[in-house]
Amino acid sequence: MSTERPSNLLKHPGQTSIPSLENISGFSLNVTDCTQVVVPEEVFFTVAAAGILENLLVLIAVIRNKNLHLPMYFFICSLAISDMLGSLYKTLENIFIILCKMGYLTRRGDFEKKLDDAMDSMFILSLLGSIFSLLAIAADRYITIFYALRYHNIMTLRRALVILAIIWTFCAGSSIAIALFSYEAATVIPFTILFPLMMFFILCLYVHMFLLARSHAKKIASLPTSTVHQRTNMKGAITLTIFLGVFLCCWAPFVLHILLARFCPHNPYCACYMSIFHVNGTLIMCNAIIDPMIFAFRSPELRSTFKKMFFCARSNWNW
Fold this sequence. Notes:
Shape: globular
GO molecular function, one term: corticotropin receptor activity
Radius of gyration: 22 Å
Organism: Calidris pygmaea (Spoon-billed sandpiper)
Strand content: under 5%
Subunit structure: Homodimer. Interacts with corticotropin (ACTH). Interacts with MRAP; this interaction targets MC2R to the plasma membrane. Interacts with MRAP2; competing with MRAP for binding to MC2R and impairing the binding of corticotropin (ACTH).
Number of helices: 11
Low-confidence stretches: 1-29, 225-229
Order of helices and strands: HHHHHHHHHHH
Keywords: Cell membrane, Disulfide bond, G-protein coupled receptor, Glycoprotein, Lipoprotein, Membrane, Palmitate, Receptor, Transducer, Transmembrane, Transmembrane helix, Ubl conjugation
Number of strands: 0
Subcellular location: Cell membrane
Largest sheet: none
Helix content: over 70%
């Protein structure tokens, strides 16, 4: 068996860009009678463009409104960047597949292999960025609820920026390493384990947060502003729970696709699930659309900033 690492991005449109999954889509059609579900390119690019634009609006809103220059909103911006990378990854991958079909790109060229590695890195960077951004938001909400009086001393803006710098440096380095060595089982297995492990850790943090929140609320109930403050903090915790639920629904099917393609590619049932690859990829981009809607719905300050931006742009257009 050849040890050469082939380019997988330009293989089959139903094939994921993780190198260890090469030829999975083509093989799955031979071992299962399930019809491959294909998302129309028009729908695909529309969803991707909407996700990129919505998250770009979130970034612009936080930058323009100085009242939003807070650690929590900086962590939200980190999540928005991860969502943008996810949509951009799927968009570029689809473009390269189209170019391959048209004959503008070859399947085994050196340039295509480099593109393959770049796309793999972007996908992994988006996934890791989302996971650690959610973890940072969870930690921020935890400190807000249980260390409310010392929150501004613990979570300063400088510390938040340092945390984000560490997160993205780690994610960037990990994404490059995993993309370059993802054909090795020793690299693929820790990556696939990381997703459920981090989700379990965040879930445990949530359970701990909500269990202690009630008793903590009773202890500070005598304070004059405690009721309003506690409601605000719990609202942030609920918002974070919604983020986590949406993230799991949108990313878990694709991660499951990777696991099945890596560990049971010859199983007809696994191959049948992998026939909905396009749907799983579209769900990733739907996550990028849903998150900004949650931002706008749950945050009055951010919603107000969106309105001001919209009316300002509308006034300039009329002028």
